[in-house]
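Render this sequence as a predicted structure.
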Amino acid sequence: MVKPLISVTLAAAVAALMSPAGAQSPPPGKSGIARNESDPTRTQGGGGDLEGYNPNDSRPAPRLADGKPDFSGVWTLLGGNLSRDVMPAFTPGGAAIWNVPRNPDRDDPSGFFCIPDGMPRIISDPYPSQLVHKPGLLVFLYEYDHLYRIVPVNGGPIPPDPSPTWMGTSVAKWDGDTLVIDTVGFTDHPYHWFDGAGHRSSDALHIIERLTRKNFQTILYDVRFDDPKVWTKTWTQHKRYALRPNWKIMEYICEENNRTATRGLDAPQPRYDNYRNKKK
């Protein structure tokens, strides 16, 4: 009963958010055409270049009808991978959770078996995201694997016992012109990886994101991780999103021609074996 409700909610949210009132104009001289036409060097899955991006753009951030900054647009996250250099010490049992043993013949459940990334790994994926923003609601549409997050911006409390999911349950509130998103309730599925290296967090993970639209082209993005079962204290990553006004998120079908996914996790995986042999 839950899936139909989520589908209807997503459809209704996106339909409302994509109305002309929520549209954001690209910079002067630019048209809203697909990125593969406006930027032929950007292929699906690639990082692309940052031609035209100015982190010190003098144009102010656009505003919503309620006066708050508008995060709408297609964005790429700069500085991709989550750095572990600033990660604090483990709790007594934290290292065993973080460094869970993996079978190399079934490595990367997302890249090779089309299992969802989930949060926070989706942050590191080198694909753009579309943010659709209206007063009281922010929707993240991820190109990779067609994942999404619906975030109510109502200042409500964090749910005390949410159903475990791959993306978690999020609520948001404003701190001045900075949007603060709290996300909890993550699944403890063994293939729910924290990052692309296969590390794991626990079901107690709490993610706090802070988004500040510095100017027309930049969102400052700080993300803090709190998992009392894994780390002795919280730790934070500082990144930024770059606006790509000429891009549209594209279709991503992981299962298409993915033989590892159709064979099943326990079957021989020559596609993955060939990949590993090439890396040697």
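Summary. The domain at 31-279 is CATH 2.40.128.20 (Lipocalin). The first strand starts at residue 73 and ends at 78.
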